[in-house]
Structure formats: C-alpha cells, structure tokens
Amino acid sequence: MEEGEQQNNGDNAPYLTISELSRAVKTAVETAFDFVRVRAEVSRPNKAPSGHLYFTLKDDRSTLAAVCWKTMRANLAIQPEEGLEVIVTGRLTTFAGQSKYQIVVSQMEVAGEGALLKQLEDRRRMLAGEGLFDADRKKKIPKMPAVIGVVTSPTGAVIRDILHRLHDRFGVHVLVWGTLVQGRDAAAQITAAIRGFDAIPDEGSLPRPDVLIVARGGGALEDLWAFNEEIVVRAVAECRIPVISAIGHETDTTLIDHVADLRAPTPTAAAELAVPVKTDLTAYLGEINARLLRSCSQKLESAGQRIAIAVRGLADPDDMIQRHAQTLDYALGGLFRGLDQWLSVRTVRLSRLAGRLNPPETKIAKAQGRLLQLDQRFDQQLVTGLTERQQKLDNLVKLLDANSFERVLDRGFALITNYHGVPIKRAAAAPSNAAVTIRFVDGERGAVLAPPHAANLTSTETLKPRAKKSPKKIFDDDQDQLF
After folding, report:
1. What span, in angstroms and rounded, lies between the C-alpha atoms of 445 and 457?
2. Of the given ranges (56-60, 74-78, 86-90, 301-305), which has the lowest mean pLDDT?
3. pLDDT, tens digit (0-9, with 9 covering 90-100), for 462-471
4. Most exposed residue of 145, 196, 294, 416, measured as fewest CB within 10 angstroms of its CB?
5. What's the pTM value of the predicted model, to 2 decimals?
6. Which fold has domain 145-276?
7. What is the sign, positive or negative, of the torsion defined by CA atoms of 183, 184, 185, 190?
C-alpha cells in the first residue's frame, strides 16, 4: 500500500514549464549572489557591436562567463585583456537561452603587481616591435626654447617645482595644460593635452611650444599606470614637438619614457634639461667674448708687425714719383719730336699730290658740257620718236575707221537682229514670222519674216514683169566690197 500511495502522490505533483523553472532559478541565483568578488584570469575578451564586453573568467579548473554592459564600461579601471589576472566585482545571474549562469561585472581591477608587470611587458614588446622606441625617431631638444608646454596636474608640488626651477634658470614662456595624472580618465586627458599642444598653429594667437614636459610625481605602479596606456604612448610618438618625460622618481619607469625624445629622472630635472642656467650662460658668453677680444687683438698686432716689415722694404714714395715723372718727361719729348717729323713728311707728300690733281672747276665745266650735249641729243630723239608714233597712230585710226561697222552700213548693207538684239547671220537662225529689227546707216525699222518661198505681196497687188535692162556692175567702181 505504501508503494502505491507513493506512486499516486508522484502522479499528482504539479509540473513547471521551462520558462517558470528558469525564472525560479534566476531569482534564486540573483538573490543568493547579488554581490560577489571573483579573482580569475581573463580569456577571450570580445567587444560586441552593441558596445557590451563579453569574456571568460577562468582558473586552473573552472570557467565563468562574464559580461560588462555598455553602460558599466566607464566604471572599469582597466580593460580586459587576454591572460590578465583580475579581480572583478558584480552579481550572478542566469541566461535562460543557454541554461547557464554568468557574472555581470561592474568593477574590474588588476589582481596584484605581478599581473600589471606582465601586462606592461607584453605592451612594451608590442610597441617596440612597431619601432616606436627606436633611437632614430627621437627629436633633438632645442637648447634655447622660447615657449615650454607642461602637461601635468594643475595643483600639487610638481608644477610648482617646474615653474620655480624654470624661473631660476632662465625666463621662458610656460603654458600649462592641467590634467588628471591618476585614475580612470587620466590617460584620455593626458592624450588630449599632448595632441592639443601639437595642434597649435605656428602663427596663431597662442604661441606654439618649442618643447613639451609630461610630468608626474612618484607613486606605485598602479598610480603611474596612466602613462603606460597605449593611447598616451602613441600620442607622444606622433607628437611633432620634442617631448621630455618626467614621471615619478628616478627608479620609476613608464612606457612613455621609452618613446619620449628625452627622459628626465624627476620633474625638476626635466626643467633643468629644458633650459640652461642663465648665470652659467652669461658667464659662458662673457668668456667667449673675452676670447674673441683677445683673438682680435692678437690678429691686429700681428698684422701691424707685418705692415711695419713691409714698409721698411719699400722705396721712398717721393723718390719713386720723381723718377717716374722724369721718365714721363723724356717720353713726352720724344713723342713731340716724332710727331713733328711725321707731320713734315706728310706735308711734303700732300704738296706733291696736290700738284697732280686737276682743279675741281675744270672737272665741273667738262661735266656740264657733256650734260648739255646729252640733253640736246635726248630732245632730238624724243621729238623724232614722238613724230613717228603720231604718224603710226593716225594710220591706225584711218584703217580702223575704214573697217568700222558704220562704214559697212554706209556702203549699202543692213544689219538684222532678233528681239534681243543678237545679229542674225544665217537664214536657219531666222524662224518664220519672227520679229526682227533692220538697222540701216541712218536708222532702224521693224519687220516680220515671211516663210521661205512665199511672195511678199498683198492680195490686191499683181506681179508685173520688170523691163530688162542692160547688165551692169553690182558695185560701182568707186564703192568698196564687203567680202
């Protein structure tokens, strides 16, 4: 009976759906583990497109899924990296979609200095492999900067020490960009300050620094961690202004010390490296000036001695002038005598040649006589030629007049033209009943051409035979023929 009763009780027990069971488990887990701190190693960190961080926490035997919502990422002191040992704070919850539990992380810190040192060494090797620490990339620090930019906390002993030391050594213009030097936002502010100084134009209203000092006082490794962040290191490497790093004490080393153009053991030492001591510089310039004066004095003295020696070797200037004047007198005397002789010879030769020349008047008279003869001959030839050409022209005019169109009409011929005034030369070109114009020597008459072989008579007229006459010449003896 007992077994049967147990069987009946199991069959009558209420059941749960998967969703109800998942909610019950979720409530139980979140109630029991609403605040936990876990120390573990980060594995497979992944940033989703939504902005959430997903990673796995593990130890030597177990693993735990972890998530950090996008809204909580700003609270993380460090970002999860592969192999980094951390201590995370959060609460446990379940994920019903995969029947697993996970921790929702709200805070994360490095678990001990050893983990930080491992992360630091891994980052140092990565950046060194990119060549950011090479010596040939480092820029030369100017010896006499006019403007110095300082990136540090605006309050505290560091900025006071730097300003005091700069004022004592040499008066320069200092620009201070105040930032956090420790904590979650320190790296972003330091990066913004370095890039901000580098973005100042050369000819802007704000003077562009000639050198930058990035400084912070001493502290533990966690305190100096902002100067080991990758964004700060890359900002220093990309800065076009020479950078002096002065982080912590002499024994403290950060990654920007490797990438900076010059590392100072302390912030005060950075100020000493940036500018010379004014008194030392004044003394050095005084020494240089004294050496320059001594050198000039020695040069002048040596030159004076050489001039004195050269003067002793020179002849008396007055004596030299007198000798050259005498030589000049002799030369001028010989020149004048030679010139007189040359003129005398040329005068004799000119007289001889003048006797052989004819007077110009004779030549002009002869030329005028020849010109008169040529003029007379030309006039005669011109008159003769014109007479001959006039006679030829008269003959041509007579010939042209004798053969002209009017002379032909005068001899009894007539010119027949059509309506357009074109001469009709053949009967074939004269159609029947065509209107034509007959031109006589004394005028024109219109006519109409009759058909071929038709009698040119009216109906009332009769044909009368003509009396025969004795034959006579067609043309008079005194009349010219057309053909």
Report:
1. 19
2. 74-78
3. 444 444 444 4
4. 294
5. 0.46
6. Rossmann fold (3.40.50)
7. positive
